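User: Run a structure prediction on this.
Assistant: Running it now.
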Amino acid sequence: MSFEFFPPKDDAGQDQLLDAISALEPLRPDFVSVTYGASGSTRARTIDATRLIQSTTGALTMGHLTCVSQSVAELHGAIDAYTDAGVRHILAVRGDPTGGPTAAWERHPDGLNNATELVRLVKAAGDFCVGVAAFPDAHPENHDFELDARVLAEKEQAGAEFAITQLFFDADAYFRLVDRVRALGCQLPIIAGIMPVTNVRQIERFATLSGADLPQPLVARLHAVADDPAAVRAVGLEIATELCDRLLSGGAPGLQFFTQNRSSATAEILARLREIAPPGT
C-alpha cells in the first residue's frame, strides 16, 4: 500500500501534511508520494515537500514528474533536485494540459510530448525506479481503451517498472485494464488508485477532472444519505472498503490511497480490510 499527498501551500498546510504523514506512518506504507504541479512555484513546493518527507519519516519517498509546461532542461533540474534529496523513485506522467484533462495537449517548445519519452529521460538520467499512470476508465483525452493498453506497454518497453491507476470506482474496469495489457505481453504490476469517498460534491468533482466513471449504484447509495454528512462518510468508507477487498481478492498487487493530506479515512479503510479474512481461509 502507498499514500499520495499534495504539496502544501502555506505553513498551515505543511502542518496538516506532517500530521497526516505522522498518523499514517505506523501503518508502514511501502512508499509515499507527492504530486507535481504545472507551475514553477508549485513544482518548487513539490520538491520541498518531498525533501521534507524524505528527511522526517522512515517511509520510502517517491517524487512525481510531469511534462506540462517544462523544457527538457527544467525536467533535468527537477531530477537533479530529487537526486540531491535522496529520492530514487519517480512517477513519470505526461500531466494534464492547462485547460484540463480533455483539452488538447500542447507540448513545451523545448519539452517532451508524452510520458513514454519522460520515462526514457528519467531512466537515462540515473538509477531510478520509474512508475507510470494507468487508466481503468480510459484516458479522458481520447477515451480509447485499446490505445491506453498499447501506450502502457510502450511505457514498460521504455523502462517503466510499475503503474498506478487514476482513481476509479468499478473493480471490473480495473480487471479489464489488466486483461488488455497482459494480452499485449505487458507485465507491469498495476497498483490500484483509491480515493476515499467522504463528500459527495468532492468526489463528483474529482471524477469529472480525472474522467472516472461514477457507477450508478454508487451514486444512488451516496445520494440516499446526501443530507447527512456523517452518513455520507460512513457509506463512502463502506464503498471504498468493498472496492479494495474485491481488488485484492482479484489479484491487484497493491493499493495507493489519494489521501488529500488527511489520514483518518485511509486509516479506517485499512483497519476494516485487516478484519476481512483473506480468500480461502
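The beta strands are 2-5, 31-34, 61-66, 89-93, 129-134, 162-167, 190-194, 255-258.
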